[in-house]
Amino acid sequence: MGDSPRPYPLLSDAIRDRCLDCSQGAPGVRTCPHARDCDLWRYRMGKEDDSAQLPRVPRSKAIRDYCRWCMGAEPASQKVTGEIKRLVSECPDPTCPLWRNRPVNPILLSQS
Ligand code: SF4
Ligand code: SF4
Predict the structure, then answer these.
(1) Distance between CA atoms of 89 and 1, rounded to whole angstroms?
(2) CB 3.0–4.6 Å: which of 77, 79, 82, 104 could bond 73 by disulfide?
(3) What pLDDT score does 2 carry?
(4) CA of 67 to the centre of ligand 2 (A)
(5) Which helix (H) or strand (E) holds 12?
């Protein structure tokens, strides 16, 4: 498939695949120790895990927050800089399972 974005009709599948990449397989995802500091942890198993330690947000916002973390923000951060939002918008890695569903700001992109 090369560098083409992977299609993910379901956010749950996109998150699951990101976690499988991150932990290199299902056993690592199941035992992932980042309940307190990864925005995706609640949804890592494909369904919701209520023992997560970060505030509950829907999957779309968990992806948003994770992408912002990926570009330098704190986990579950409500205050992010315009620079971080721009970096997420311009993310150059379409092979990331979250890429299609990252928050994209057309205004920021048009200014770059
Ligand atoms: S919950 Fe976070 S740290 Fe754990 S496997 Fe998923 S992406 Fe990686
Ligand atoms: S889509 Fe980009 S910003 Fe979001 S997690 Fe993947 S690599 Fe990071």
Answers:
(1) 22
(2) 77
(3) 52
(4) 5
(5) helix 11-23
